[in-house]
Specification:
Structural class: alpha/beta
Number of strands: 12
Low-confidence stretches: none
CATH superfamily of the largest domain: Periplasmic binding protein-like II
CATH class of the largest domain: Alpha Beta
Largest sheet: 7 strands, mixed
Radius of gyration: 18 Å
Strand content: 15-25%
CATH architecture of the largest domain: 3-Layer(aba) Sandwich
Number of helices: 9
Helix content: 25-40%
Length: 269
């Protein structure tokens, strides 16, 4: 039984199409930080983990070819504020993902030229903005928040990163210990992704069954904002992000060349 841990947001659903019905797979959904913890505890074999997690786990490998990424606006990772970012002195960070929190710190330093105090809070925008000038939200809470209705500006972190670097951003990928995935495992995950990418509208509609008013946003998000290929430019984006993370001392691991599981052809990716 292959134990998979995936993030609980809409953006992962195209990558896990049909896996819950596979008798050889156990699939669970959690927020990104919990996926990382479960992988560390050995409770899952592969996790769709925040990209920064890989730096903290020497010896782990990445499933080639697929990721949760963006090129330009991502829609679901953003800062919300009533102030101009140049006036922000405190930022509340969603505790759900270290990757996004680290990216906020990079962008505050390099793009906004500010050095705010950072607080970690649950993803409740009202509570967050009660204690800070700006709030980082990720995933569904950021995607479906009607920020204009409550008088907030939304600063899309994917858009800022691509504007600053010219590169995509890789938010998460399948990763695990070096013996956790065979070429057949990689092939199965590739098939799931291919199936999901052929059914984006149906996946969005099913995900929003309890909130049908969200379906247009969900469909547009999967089609326009999400980028699921992990190719050479995405690997270069990971290298760049890892250098920036290390430069700010935001990880205990050293920046290193991404290492991948063997793909179906038997050749390392």
């Amino acid at each position: 039984m292959l134990r998979l841990g995936a993030v609980s947001y809409l953006n992962v659903r195209p990558l896990v199409a049909g896996l819950a019905d596979d008798p050889g797979i156990s699939l669970r959904f959690d927020v990104p930080a919990v996926c990382a913890r479960l992988l560390s505890e050995g409770a899952i074999d592969l996790g769709m983990v925040p990209s920064i997690t890989w730096l903290d786990r020497p010896g782990d490998r990445i499933v080639p070819g697929v990721c949760i990424g963006s090129f330009g606006p991502v829609g679901s990772v953003a800062l919300f504020s009533r102030k101009d970012m140049r006036e922000v002195r405190t930022v509340a960070l969603d505790a759900s993902s270290r990757t996004s929190a680290a990216l906020v710190r990079i962008l505050c330093r390099q793009h906004f030229a500010i050095d705010p105090v950072f607080l970690t809070r649950p993803p409740d925008v009202d509570e967050m903005l009660g204690v800070a000038d700006a709030a980082l939200l990720i995933g569904d809470p950021a995607l479906f928040l009607d920020h204009e209705a409550i008088g907030l500006q939304k600063i899309d972190l994917g858009e800022l990163w691509t504007g600053m670097t010219g590169l995509p951003f890789v938010w998460a990928f399948w990763s695990g210990r070096a013996d956790a995935a065979t070429p057949a495992t990689v092939a199965r995950l590739h098939r799931a992704a291919a199936d999901g990418l052929r059914s984006l509208d149906a996946i969005a509609d099913a995900y929003c069954a309890d909130h049908p008013e969200r379906r247009p946003v969900a469909r547009d998000y999967l089609r326009r904002n999400m980028h699921y290929e992990l190719g050479p430019r995405e690997v270069e984006a990971l290298r760049t992000y890892y250098r920036e993370v290390a430069a700010l001392g935001l990880t205990t691991g050293e920046p290193r060349e991404p290492e991948f599981f063997d793909g179906p052809s038997g050749a390392a990716q």
